[in-house]
Design goal:
alpha+beta, Ybab, Chain: A, three-stranded antiparallel sheet, 2 helices, rod-shaped
Amino acid sequence: MSQMNKLLKQAQKMQAHVMKMQEEMQKKEFEGVSGGGMVKAVLNGANRLVSIKINPEVVNPQEAEMLEDLIIAAHAAAAEKIRQTSDTAYGSLTGGLGLPGM
């Protein structure tokens, strides 16, 4: 039974560490840029849009579709940074165990 208790304690420790990492991740901000810096989107680690900056040069009513595409691209770039950071953090935690959901 002591082996089972040891395993249970390790799992609890790992769970606490994962929760701490999630909290830290949500506090971070990730910037995505598109259009050569014309549009910048900042997301927090919870993948929520925190801010968006648009260069006035691209605010042209005739080019609204282009601006919409740039915003989507900047958001996607920031979301990809979140995914990469998360993968790196959780990959180091699990040590490549291949645990589902991590």
